[in-house]
Amino acid sequence: MRNKFFKLIFNDKDNKEISLDYQVHNSAIAKKWFKKIKHLKNIPIDIIESRQDEYSDLKTIYKQFCIFADIKSIDFEIADQELLNYFHELYEEFHQTLSLKKNNLILYKFHNSIHYNSNNSDNDKEHMHVGWGIKEGPLTEVFKCNDYYEKEIKKNNIYLPWAELGKKPLGYWENKEPNTQTRVNELCKPHTTLRAKFFISHKDIIPKTFDVEFIKWFDQFKKNWLAHCDIEKWDEIDEYSAPLLAIAQHTEDITNLKFLKIIID
Fold first, then answer.
1. Residue 85 lies in a domain
2. CB 23 within 8 A of CB 255
3. pTM of whole model > 0.90?
């Protein structure tokens, strides 16, 4: 496994294919991820999970979600954070039932649109996301991913994204969610879901120091939350970094490229 290589194929703006080489990282989590990817190498990616769709029009996406969920929609002009929090609660509430229905892509499009409109898609500018959505099926597993988080993220390398039904503690605080231990334990999630998806970083990222006000807020819930999640810590690395999966064997700038497929011998 130490010398296992594979290729990622991209399209440029002229629709020309570009092939770039990667080497699987020598870690337990990377090996698990690569075994999953080998099962999906010939399956088309999911354009919604890979964020190759449009998410800015939350109003239209929300109405489509309500039709699919068979619930009454509300009218709004601007989605402030309070409304976005409410939409996220709707997603949580209906996820279990709607995920079992056919043609349910609007469920995930709604979720992506909530986050896109919440953070102005900064994450999309920093990373290229690739995933197979529901096509990955039983390949998802429970795994303590935080134990494998890198101290920093390097440009062009491949990492495992946090993929939980909830929010990280900092995002919870920034979104002004309820100041109760019960809701913190319910909605704040460490990284315990190992999925067959990944992101490629567009730039080097060094975890930022936490805001003093966030630290003060989190201290009142942290001990109980860590015990609830059965983890030992939550710091800047857990919040801003990710597990390394594969190392780029190139120095190309992929910012304006579009992911096409993966080639594994």
1. yes
2. no
3. no
